[in-house]
Specification:
The protein is mainly α and 329 residues long. Keywords: Membrane, Transmembrane, Transmembrane helix. InterPro entries: Sbt_1.
Length: 329
């Protein structure tokens, strides 16, 4: 229960309560955007500084390979089950949402590890960036296949890329791979890697001293947003509710097994489990609204933000870290 005594988590809980009470408390969108960018910039710098200190190794390469494998495997494994629980377009959207990652969950997990003095590789921030885009690509592919099949245009079972509603496929993929938040994360990591210890000392007041307070402020906003999405879950099939609660645990178990197979250190294993267990509620839903308009935003946002995010913050992070540090090498 020590996680509940963390100020950042308590601010998230406070935001949920305030939202459920229908308070007029709100964080202006511009400030929310700034907080998100600040956290990603700080995370990237920390990762770059850590990489400058440790250098690249076989373990780094193995972690990144595992992240990419999970980014592709999780949505592909989840799709057949989701097709049994909801319509095909909703299934594609949910598979992509749960195949991608939550930056806030990851950042909270790194703070959890740092608070307890547990080491992890700075390259895991790059792993997070790598795991976001494959799910978006798969969602576009799945939706296009469904449209062509429905129109009788698919021949010999081949998968042909069609132009999704709202813009060309190239435009959507360009946006997913060049998203400003991702570029900021990777750019900050590169700057941290190039500047090393001198850069770390210079940026300490910005990237370290302010980080905890900024994270608490941002999680307050996430709590308010979670409360707004909870009503969308009313009337949803119980099986989908169970999926939102159980799938993260299954995905974390897959990540743990893969990390053990590759011999990853405990800190990296715990963060890989966090990434696999999380679900996107910002980047992927923004693309899905345009690429898969047939899917219901209230469903994939309600499940990922209303159920999976709180589950990971309150239960998942301490569970994944505990399992990784008890059993991982």
């Amino acid at each position: 229960m020590s996680v509940l005594l963390d100020p950042s988590i308590l601010f998230f809980l406070f935001g949920v309560i305030a939202g459920l009470l229908r308070s007029n408390l709100e964080i202006p969108p511009a400030i929310s955007r700034f907080l998100s960018l600040y956290l990603l910039m700080s995370l990237g710098l920390k990762g770059g500084f850590a990489l400058a200190h440790s250098g690249f190794s076989a373990s780094v390469s193995a972690s990144l390979a595992a992240a990419l494998l999970l980014a592709v495997g999780v949505p592909l494994l989840g799709l057949p089950l989701l097709r049994r629980l909801c319509g095909p377009f909703d299934a594609a959207a949910l598979a992509a949402t749960y195949g991608s990652v939550s930056a806030v969950t990851f950042i909270t997990a790194t703070q959890y590890l740092e608070t307890r003095g547990l080491a992890f590789g700075g390259h895991m921030a790059a792993a997070m960036a790598m795991m976001e885009s494959p799910a978006i690509l798969l969602a576009v592919l799945m939706a296009n296949r469904l449209r062509r099949s429905a129109a009788g245009l698919q021949a010999n079972g081949s998968l042909t890329l069609a132009t999704p509603p709202g813009g060309g496929l190239g435009k959507l993929l360009h946006e997913s791979f060049t998203d400003g938040a991702q570029l900021l994360l990777l750019g900050a990591m590169l700057i941290g890697l190039l500047t090393g210890e001198a850069g770390k000392a210079a940026m300490q007041p910005f990237s370290a001293d302010l980080f905890k307070g900024m994270l608490a402020f941002f999680l307050l906003d996430m709590g308010l947003m979670t409360a707004r999405k909870l009503p969308a879950l009313r009337g949803q099939p119980p099986a989908l509710i169970l999926y939102a609660l159980l799938a993260p645990l299954v995905h974390a178990a897959l990540a743990f097994g893969l990390a053990r197979l590759l011999g990853l250190p405990a800190g990296d294993t715990s963060l890989l489990m966090v990434l696999a267990a999380s679900a996107s509620y910002i980047a992927v839903p923004a693309v899905l609204r345009e690429a898969v308009p047939e899917a219901s935003p209230s469903l994939y946002l309600g499940m990922s933000l209303g159920l999976t995010l709180p589950l990971n913050l309150f239960v998942g992070i301490p569970l994944y870290v505990s399992v990784a540090h008890r059993f991982a090498s």
